[in-house]
């Protein structure tokens, strides 16, 4: 996982037009938190949707799906199926990366549909965050200019972001607008 994290950090840094060690030097992908998800069989899937729309709070999430499927991302206001491919990982940009990149990267809104198959769905997600939950982040200075002014506060800790997210509740709306300079 360490090698993958380092490679992704380099690629994301380069995609932002920064040196390949930039995100690594910030430490924003330093900590990993793997989480297993289990979605039991839904007895009446035609009567339910599944999970509500959400975005990842972290900087980056890697998702390993089983063969059941049901994971969707919102792209140009249309829900798109992300069919599972054996051995493939889905990489989702998270809210903190959107803030840090000053909207150069966009957090991925996603959901999981109730399965119509008579088997449960399992997945494993690995969330990448800073190891210091009190360290503050904001738009990267090299990505800010008169033409591209900062969009977000420059002193948001992961702990503060999660606290606000929990306070507002999982209502299908992102917590990101709360941290915009102009609402």
Brief summary of the model shown:
This protein has 183 residues and is of the alpha+beta class. The chain is built from four helices and ten strands.
Q: Could you explain the architecture of this structure?
A:
This protein has 183 residues and is α+β, with helices and mostly antiparallel strands. The chain is 20% helix and 26% strand.
Low-confidence runs: none
Along the chain, the helix and strand elements come as HHEEEEEEHEEEEH
Helix content: 10-25%
Average pLDDT reading: 91
Q: What distance separates the N and C termini?
A: 38 Å
Provide the structure class. alpha+beta
- Give the tally of β-strands: 10
Radius of gyration: 17 Å
Q: Total helix count?
A: 4
Shape, please?
A: globular
Portion of residues in beta strands equals 25-35%
Strand order of the largest sheet: 1-8-3-6
Question: What composes the largest sheet?
Answer: 4 strands, antiparallel
Key words describing this protein structure:
20% helix, globular, 183 residues, alpha+beta, 4-stranded antiparallel beta sheet
In terms of topology, how is this protein built?
Elements: H1 2-15, H2 22-26, E1 31-39, E2 54-55, E3 60-65, E4 71-75, E5 78-81, E6 90-93, H3 95-100, E7 109-112, E8 121-129, E9 136-137, E10 156-157, H4 158-168
Antiparallel strand pairs: 1-8, 2-7, 3-6, 3-8, 4-5, 4-7, 9-10
